[in-house]
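We treat protein structure as text, and this decision shapes the records that our systems exchange. Such a record has a labelled line for the sequence and another for the C-alpha cells. The record that follows is passed on verbatim for readers who wish to inspect the format:
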Amino acid sequence: MDHHRLLKKINESDRVQDKEQAKKRAEGGLAGAFKDNNYRERNRNPPKSFKELYQLQNKQLQKKQVVQERADKRWYNRFLSRES
C-alpha cells in the first residue's frame, strides 16, 4: 500500500474519532467538554459552571508547574554534583 492511501485512511479514522468526541461532548455538557488526565475525577463530580472549570484547570496547571520545578531542581542539583 502506498503512503498516500495510508495517509488517507489515517485521516478518515481521525475524522471519525473527532466526530465521536464531538458527539460525546454534546451529550455530556460541561463534564465531557475538556478531557485530560483528571477527567475521571471531574466526571465523578463535574463542574457546574465555567468558573469552576477554570478553577479546576488552574489547579491542574499549578500542579504541573510544581512538578516541573521539582524536576528542574533535581536536574540542577545533579548537574552541580557532577561539576564538583
